[in-house]
Amino acid sequence: MIQKKLGIIGCGNMGGAILYGALESKVVAKENVYVYDISPAMREKAAGWGVTISANDAEVCRSADIILLAVKPQQAKEALAMCEDALDNKAMMSIVAGVTVERLQTMIQGSPRILRIMPNTPAMVYEGAFALCSDNDFTEDELASATAIYETIGIVEMIPEQLIDAVCGLSGGGPAYAAMFIEAMADGGVKQGLPRATAYRLAAQTCLGTAKMILETDMHPGQIKDMVTSPAGTTIEGCEKLETGGMRGAVMECIKAATERSKAL
């Protein structure tokens, strides 16, 4: 458990997922968490987890040692203005998509230390993927505390900030792409006569199991494909259809488009 007090500005889907995961894994005590969100519903949700609901953003910053900024990009300027000078000499983690550390600094009164992070929503079930910018000015203790929060609810990769938009395009939006693929697999099963609930469970578990094989054995994805595709068998027939449909190219274009959008925000 980290000893530092954690402040959260914005407790929507992503901020809430990180907070919930950190509390459930007991990496941070609820007594050491301060939250503010402009939405009464989000404040009520966070209050139900036993954390302290602050009156505004500035109060969060004054109460906490490390602050997580988890608002939408278009709300960042207003949220940081509400902090007034309470962020000066504090440690701030930002998961605001598309907003660089340099841009954040222009919105803040004072000089906080900033760590930019790209998370994703599977943090809610302790399977998040987090990219932390290696070019940050956190102290060693602050970085260790930040890393501990995310390692308990997923995997952590350290990357330079110049690659953060690519991470946004890949793992930031990845849960949506993976869910679409699972839904498409299930639709295919339903078309062939499987019950809908069964098709969803089989498709989801197949993707989960395949991902674990890659992460836990370091097997190359192509090696797993080759293990399943017997000569003149059923799987290679399916693979041919995916290749004919341009699946690989479509996925690569998907990541490219999301990355470019992140850069444009």
- Strand order of the biggest β-sheet: 3-2-1-4-5-6-7-8
The number of helical runs is 12
> Which structural class do you get from the secondary structure elements?
alpha/beta
* Main sheet makeup: 8 strands, mixed
What is the element string, with H for helices and E for strands? EHEHEHEHEHEEHEHHHHHH
Low-confidence stretches: none
Bin the strand percentage: 5-15%
| First and last CA, distance | 35 Å
Characterize the overall form: elongated
The radius of gyration over CA amounts to 21 Å
Please report the total strand number as a whole number. Answer: 8
Helix-residue proportion: 40-55%
Oligomeric form of this entry? single chain
Average pLDDT taken over every residue:
95
In short:
With 265 residues, the protein is an alpha/beta fold. The protein has twelve helices and eight strands.
Protein described:
This protein has 265 residues and is of the alpha/beta class. Helices cover 52% and strands 14% of the residues. The protein has helices spanning 13-24, 40-47, 57-63, 76-82, 101-106, 140-151, 164-172, 174-191, 196-217, 221-228, 234-244, 247-264; strands spanning 6-9, 33-36, 52-53, 66-69, 91-94, 113-118, 128-133, 154-159. Strands 3-2-1-4-5-6-7-8 form an eight-stranded mixed beta sheet, sandwiched between helices. Helix 7 crosses helix 12.
